[in-house]
Amino acid sequence: MSTSGSTSVLWKIAPSALLPALVYEIGNGAVAPIIPLAALASGASTTTAALMAAMTGIGRILGDVPAAKLADRVGDRRAMSIAAAVTALCWLACLVTTSLVALGIALLVVGACNSTFYLARQNYVAEVVAITMRARALSTLAGAHRIGLFAGPFLGAGAITLGGLRAAFAIGVLATLATGLCLLFIRDLDLSGDRPHHVRGARGARAIFRDHRSLFLSLGLMVATVGAVRATRQIVLPLWADEIGLSATVTSLVFGIANMVDMSLFYPAGHVMDRWGRLAVAVPAMSLLGLGLIALPFTQEVIGFTLVAAAMSFGNGIGSGIMMTLGADAAPHDNRTTFLSVWRLLSDTGQALGPVIPAACAAAATLSVGIGLVGSLGIVAAVGLARWVPRYSTYATPSAARRQREAAGRGEG
Q: Which intervals hold domain Major facilitator superfamily (MFS) profile (predicted)?
């Protein structure tokens, strides 16, 4: 497909898929930085505040499989609308309550709603976009999420300036209500003509795991490892900046540079995946992340720290949408939603457990040992993806991608 044709397709899905994702993530981005601060203001200890910050991640793990059941029962659009409505109520509760118990419950429910929203939108894009455009569409969807998370804290900061700390929750309320309006008034696209509509809800998560056990215990474990490495990157960068004595202002500036590098690469990443195969992105992305983490403890000043942070962000950026794309490639047409819920469960579990490794190593040995250990996992993930992606994705290599494009051009799907 030509560049102009692919751009036209992305513009077609922008109102129904990309815009709601961006607006929804603005709310999450505005709220995320102030969750532990709101807990501290309500009388929480530092440990409890850290737990509150982790509640949305725990909620995502708990909500991944039920999200598939909801999406199969009511459809992707209604599932997203329900998730947006409940999230708005939860952010409103966070805005008005001073109870730590109520705050924790609300954040847990938000995490479960996030699972529903992300799964339904991924499933929708995988269904309405032609397979030859899948990676570009899903990497752009991932880019919309990242742009929203990047913009959200700035809006949250403005709200805090005007109305105090908890005013950031008001941005969360407004963003999720706006998401609901988008879903209410913007019509979804029709199913792509290159494959049949998938069967919904015929088999549960346990049956899907049993049917695809070898996939989940090989490629699925690599998905969990990727999630662990990516989540750890976000945690250890500020910790190591503090370790080498960088100020909060300098650390924030470095993060801004790194995030800009990350966000600028989502569309090129999808284009490379569609044209040259999934491995052309998956292996370099994880290699850069792994090597960057291994190199991080050797940085002792701001220039080296910035270069390593930018290199890791480059790796994370070129991997934009890769896990969603591989999940869509591997998913069967029957019960795709349930399959993707198990896929996301593995990724979310990895994201939750990954930061535990450097924390445990910092307590038992040193932070640098923990960072290096997670970096080694990044190299393991790169090797594992190189081995197992060709087994489960028909777009793994340049020759495989070319054959699929030629088959699509002949009308063979």
A: 1-393
106-146 confidence digits (pLDDT tens):
999 999 999 999 999 998 888 888 888 889 999 999 999 98
CB 235, CB 370: distance < 8 Å:
no
Report if residue 283 sits inside a domain.
yes
Per-residue b or e along 172-206, where b marks 16 or more CB atoms closer than 10 Å to that residue's CB: bbbbbbbbbebbeeeebbeebeeeeebebeeeebe
pLDDT band at 248 (very low <50, low <70, confident <90, very high): confident
| Interatomic CA distance for residues 339 and 316, integer angstroms | 24
The two three-digit tokens of residue 105, written as one number: 């419950």
Number of domains in the chain: 2
161 and 279 share one domain: no
> What is the average pLDDT value for the chain, to the nearest integer?
88
Q: 124: domain range?
A: 1-197
Buried b (16+ CB within 10 A) or exposed e, 224-253: bbbbbbbbbbebbbebbbebeebeeeebee
Share of the chain above pLDDT 90, in %: 53
What crossing angle do the helices spanning 76-96 and 46-74 adopt, rounded to 10°?
Answer: 150
Residue 43's CB is within 10 A of a number of other CB atoms, namely 10
Q: Are residues 243 and 344 in the same domain?
A: yes
Measured CA to CA, the distance from residue 140 to residue 136 in angstroms comes to 6
Model confidence, pTM? 0.87
pLDDT at res. 277: 94
Q: d(Cα 349, Cα 343) in Å, to the nearest integer?
A: 10
Do the beta carbons of residue 62 and residue 112 sit within 8 Å? Answer: yes
Given a contact cutoff of 8 angstroms between Cβ atoms, the answer to whether 289 and 310 are in contact is: no
H/E element, 369:
helix 367-392
Give the Å distances, CA to CA, from 139 to 171, 246, 255, 264, 398. 26, 33, 21, 11, 18
Same domain, 126 and 240: no
Which pLDDT tens digit goes with each residue over 15-30? Answer: 888 899 999 999 999 9
- Residue 334, beta-bridge partner list: 199
Instruction: Report the distance separating Cα 257 and Cα 394, nearest Å.
Output: 36
Distant-in-sequence contacts of 34-43, Cβ < 8 A, 24+ apart? 34/156, 34/160, 34/165, 34/166, 34/168, 34/169, 35/107, 37/165, 38/94, 38/103, 38/165, 38/166, 38/169, 39/100, 39/103, 41/165, 41/166, 42/98, 42/99, 42/100, 42/103, 43/100
